User: Fold Acyl-coenzyme A oxidase from Colocasia esculenta.
Amino acid sequence: MENNPVAAEDDRARSLRRMRRLSLHLAEPSLLPAERQLATVPCARAKRVSVANPAAFAAYMRGKHWDVQVRVFEFFRSRPDLQTPIEIPMADHRELCLRQLRALVREGGVRPFRYVFEDPGVYFAVAQAAGSVDMSLGIKMGVQYSLWGGSVINLGTQKHKEMFFDGIDNLDYPGCFAMTELHHGSNVQGLQTTATFDIATDEFIINTPNDGAIKWWIGNAALHGKFATVFAKLLLPSQETGGVTDMGIHAFIVPIRDLKTHQTLPGVEIRDCGHKVGLNGVDNGALKFSFVRIPRDNLLNRFGDVSRDGKYTSSLPSVSKRFAAMLGELVGGRVGLGYSSVNVLQLAVTIAVRYSLLRQQFGPPKQPEVCILDYQSQQQKLMPMLASTYAFHFASRYMVENYTEMKKTHDEQIVSDVHALSAGLKSYITSYTAKSLSICREACGGHGYAAVNRFGSLRNDHDIFQTFEGDNTVLLQQVAGDLLKQYKEKFQGGTLSVTWNYLRDSMGTYLSQPNPVTARWEGEDHLRDPKFQLDAFRYRTSRLLQTAAMRLRKHTKTLGSFGAWNRCLNHLLTLAESHIESVILVKFIEAVNNCPDNSTRTVLKLVCDLYALDRIWNDIGTYRNVDYVAPNKAKAIQKLRDYLCFQLRTVAKELIDAFDLPDHVTRAPIAMQSQAYTNYTQQVGFQPEPAPVVL
Amino acid sequence: MENNPVAAEDDRARSLRRMRRLSLHLAEPSLLPAERQLATVPCARAKRVSVANPAAFAAYMRGKHWDVQVRVFEFFRSRPDLQTPIEIPMADHRELCLRQLRALVREGGVRPFRYVFEDPGVYFAVAQAAGSVDMSLGIKMGVQYSLWGGSVINLGTQKHKEMFFDGIDNLDYPGCFAMTELHHGSNVQGLQTTATFDIATDEFIINTPNDGAIKWWIGNAALHGKFATVFAKLLLPSQETGGVTDMGIHAFIVPIRDLKTHQTLPGVEIRDCGHKVGLNGVDNGALKFSFVRIPRDNLLNRFGDVSRDGKYTSSLPSVSKRFAAMLGELVGGRVGLGYSSVNVLQLAVTIAVRYSLLRQQFGPPKQPEVCILDYQSQQQKLMPMLASTYAFHFASRYMVENYTEMKKTHDEQIVSDVHALSAGLKSYITSYTAKSLSICREACGGHGYAAVNRFGSLRNDHDIFQTFEGDNTVLLQQVAGDLLKQYKEKFQGGTLSVTWNYLRDSMGTYLSQPNPVTARWEGEDHLRDPKFQLDAFRYRTSRLLQTAAMRLRKHTKTLGSFGAWNRCLNHLLTLAESHIESVILVKFIEAVNNCPDNSTRTVLKLVCDLYALDRIWNDIGTYRNVDYVAPNKAKAIQKLRDYLCFQLRTVAKELIDAFDLPDHVTRAPIAMQSQAYTNYTQQVGFQPEPAPVVL
Assistant:
């Protein structure tokens, strides 16, 4: 959602140190002793792993807010009238979704809006659980409380809170977040809607100057919204020119429907954006304004205000700083999406793995057929995905904890961390989950294509997670931009060797030029040593960062900063992904180290190793190309990765069980924990077999 | 759909030489002179490419049967009552789909069943065009004519043709292809349904012995089918034992609904498989048989027959040969799916590229925004995909031509070629298209998520192309199995060096050990030389083949053939993909060479180079690991690949236009060739702007 990282470098002074601090996390001193400790975990070949204590495992995996999630699940379980059927027309789905949300809030005693401010961790847990019930419900909740409600509270002041809090909380005031326009999504500074101050009447005039400025994809707009937070260029009458001065994008509360009659208000034209790929329980609409007048008080004036006589005041010195502060308040949406995406991935992996353990096809001559998870190809599809699910689980939990801390302390350093972390994790996780959903469907063959088994709706609903709250490609560029700024800050005017020194200094002792001796080490203990894994991840990131900076400097001379950025764009996206992968690995290693239960820790270590080696293998070309690994080591990595897939398969059931998703949440008949086929045949209308000869 | 490649090695005697002949295609002598000719095409940097003659370009791209496709398009264009709306309940969609098919056949004068036999190329062209109208229609057509009709004609004899041809042709006899069971899809030999001959009444008794044997996913079964071709184990009374003898899987025509009343017949239980991820215009059902009696004549007896006194006769000597012959007749389905998948990819790429040329976002400071196809990241997403679309276009056309030739001549050599080629291309193309549809949606951001812009339905409908008519992972194993058999046949008992000689002999002169000198060549002329590209592709395939054979031999000793195959499965899948990529490249190079128009040829050469270098770069780790390319060359390949993406972007519009898909076929408002945004806003109900200031 933020502006182009090149074109607006000066807009970002506040975020200069974000990523440096992130990399400090990477090199936390606490890590090294633990790494030594981990090295003593018996290697996989030496000892067969097993889950000795499933309860301890599940307990370690549960979030702090598991109880509220169970409450959401149980509420909907007790209300069959609120369950979303497999096939439901869009119009019915939208009404059902509103009923689901109202029932949860008014009857289920879950008050998301309060959590948003009192304890965001609880809010994210509720939204995640609601998303498991129906992803439209999770998003509808996000529109109401995080976007519409969040914009009123975070961008407004006390007067707005007093006027709107209760109505938003109890759903009397469903509302919209009207930022995106037909022509502008990512480039928020390019929005064309205007808000002109009329000093004569003490009002703002909201206007859509051309069809490209129609507010588009606005959730809650097509049917249910009473208000919208409209983002528009604030135009103030200028005494000097007699014209108007553009003060930049600001947010305004605009009533769009009559509170009593629900009639669309004069000057507002609302159209239905229609059927979407997914999330059809959310009523997205388009809003066109024709000189709609709103009181001056409707400006959300926390970061900038207009006085009765048309004077502008702000605690922040520039348009760009105000813009950054405004967008900065909206980071919660990204945190929530990344966090919910992990849950979607958990659901999909649970269904795919349980079915792959059930399904048998082919086998050795004259022997029973084997389950399809025994095939190397199926392991290759699902085991690295399972490992990534664990990795994302710990990383996203860390992100939510940091966000909660940020909201409590408003510590500037944490603010910066959360911005970079949420941009990176939202992008990386949602892209990975989107791909995985297709892989899961395919891995489950024909039965994966039955709507009742959920891959279709999960994929369709989740798909847009890659786009909204910040397009993933744009967010990754923000991560890359932050890394580069931190890099530049350190070595401005320095030579190449200073550059390398900087990297050494800032990222600790792990970075070294490829060592022709260690490049050949191929022992399992070495490859499973977190130190080797982290070294490899960080080496890659550091190298990509250094070469990106060099290339950008070179090309900027001839192409300008925009052209140079574009010329290096693929490189920069790889840099950002590489960095995020490191952050995720660090958090995973910490989670392994911190696990109090021995058998759980051993299994988690296995999962963590697969995550690490899978990522290294995926980019083996890069490692080979700089001789960071020799050919023999590359082969050993591939071999161990395949072997770890096989090892994970032996504890796959337990790893899935530890996600603790009961059958009434997974819902897919092919993934039931017992009698799956029977459940499936009954679901299409067959009577149960008299004697279960098949099962 | 065939059996496990390891467990049934001896089943495959007929296919031993398939892939060898395929590789002969790879080394056609005609190629070399053309390669020299191509080397004279000015390299991209030296001369800006452009499409001088769009008409010649489009003409070269058009298939032989473009006219019949236009007829299908125009028929549906003239019949708005037959167009599938964006949102349609499943029940209505199924009825509409039947009406679409009936109208096309009875009013549009298109008779697919006749084309199936008279000129399959026309049939595939019709099915492809029907799929563009609504993919459910294309599949419904395939169920009726290729599967149900095809099984009657190809597996039956004259008596069946006389009895059923007209009813199938004119849709009086809608029918089903009842092969897949709840428990068995890929492993057709594991089907459990039985057909027991009752000598007393001269009937077969069709029975579902357990719920795992319920016929599942049967198209046309839930609603419209009158008959089903049921695949079942033929059980003949044995005079010796007094019991029955299992003669293997055979096909039987079983009436399932009354011809007049449409009532389900006694002993047949039909359930609706319900809502699917996509293709909801096709009524898939489940069939359970309770001792249903059918006349002996209903055995489709081309490859095996039962006499009045219960004696079995066949021109083929073994169960496995008859099984292979039976499945061999069904290869048309794969050809059709691969061919249609290319069209789906064309549609998606057309929409994504046209929108990426329209959509502007961000830009250099104080300059207009740039179109998103100008971003390197967008080029990287879409240009290799565009190149692959061209590559698949020529390869699939070749496949259809070969299939047509096979049906004419029944030449055993062509039969073998078509089997391997269709398994490989169906698998490779449908997997690639499935991934690409998600990439296209994501690349088009929020507007890509509007259902009206089609990515959602294309993806949902196409998804199952990866599974039906042979699961892609299983089909790839067939390709690998064929390659290995051909390999074994050549060097049985030979030593390693003989192995290498074999590879040299059979694959021509291109294969060499990595040469440390050429491994460093990085000039553009070299990298764009088809000889280098083919060498690289073939080197990789040959190496994978050789190492796979060695590993299989090694592991078979300890793990048995099934275990060894599974231990090498990922390797074997990579081998198969590598081989198919080579076949596709060869066909693309031929298509470039054969192009009569100079400017078209120059552009096609550019596209072909991107296809080749993109694939090489995707597996650069492998090439680096064996030092087939040195680090400098790896970098040069990456750089040239990125540059070719940029070059393609400059002719992207023309490359898309050459697909010749008119707006009324692409249909997505964001991809209209003029006034796209206006079309889009009007589509949700806004009035046109009085003056088009935006566009």
Q: What stands out?
A: The longest strand of chain B covers residues 244-255.
